[in-house]
Amino acid sequence: MLVLNRKLGESIMLGDNIEIRILEMADGKVKIGIEAPRDLTILRKEVYDQVVEENKNAINNQVDPLTVLRQNSK
Amino acid sequence: MRIKTKYFGEVEITEETIVNFPNGLLGFAESKRFAVLEIPQSPGFKFLQDIENTYVSFMIVSPWGFFPDYEAVIDDSELVSIRTENTSESDLDVYLVVTIGNSFNESTANLIAPIVINTSDRLGKQFVLHDSKYTTKHKLISEEAGE
Questions:
Q1: Element spanning A49, H or E
Q2: Short-list B140, B147, B146, CA closest to B45
Q3: What is the greatest pairwise CA distance in chain A?
Q4: Residues 6+ apart with CB under 8 A from A64
């Protein structure tokens, strides 16, 4: 992991198209501004991890999904 | 072309069945080409089958049959990655990834990370809704429904 120190108001560039700026620091929290191409997905890591985990759960099912689907007698 | 599917064996598909996911799905960045397969006798449910990796096959469902009030609010600036100039609202199909449990009653859908497919340009992406009340696990059959 690359570790950099930044002061309030300073920025980091990722490649040519992504800028990460420290906007505020208070109460143990940092407000971070991100400029990036619109097709780049930017997420809080906890949310990212939850979605990845559920995607993996969705394909690792132990039961045959077609059998379970047939139980839906709508 | 023939593809190997996880649940239907070898299947013949046409180019029109294939959807390109330039960013894959979250956690599956390498899965960029999927076939959308109908599931017989299960309207609303489909498989999103990775055509290059047989094991990667997601069950997806159209949201409103189970969640009539579902709203996927996605900013236009994010949708730009799967839209082209001529894309209209009606070209965009929304699906939820289903996690099948031991029974249908234990099965859940991921409401916070819907999959949007541009049916005219055959492009797809998994979006994550921001500031949302939804989670990754909503039971398809609500216990309070009392039906």
A1: helix A45-59
A2: B140
A3: 60
A4: B7
* ipTM computed for the complex: 0.93
- Residues 19 to 58 of A: which have CB under 8 A from any B CB? 38-39, 41, 43, 47-48, 50-58
Within chain B, residue ranges assigned H as helices are 76-79
| CA nearest to B89, candidates B60, B116, B61, B125 | B116
Mind listing the pLDDT tens digit for each residue in B78-121?
898 899 888 888 899 999 999 999 999 999 999 999 999 999 99
CA-wise closest residue to A31 among A22, A44, A20: A22
Contacts of B113 (CB under 8 A, 6+ apart): A51, A54, A55, B26, B97, B126, B127, B128, B129, B136
Closest partner residue to A71 (CB to CB) among B56, B65, B104 is B104
C-alpha dihedral sign at B134, B137, B141, B144:
negative
pLDDT in tens, A2-46: 999 999 999 999 999 999 999 999 999 999 999 999 888 999 999
In this structure, what are the phi and psi dihedrals at residue B121, rounded to the nearest 5 degrees? Answer: -100, 0
Cβ atoms of B80 and A38 closer than 8 Å: yes
C-alpha B79: how far from chain center: 15
Q: Does residue B64 sit in helix, strand or coil? A: helix
Residues A11/A20, Cβ–Cβ less than 8 Å: yes
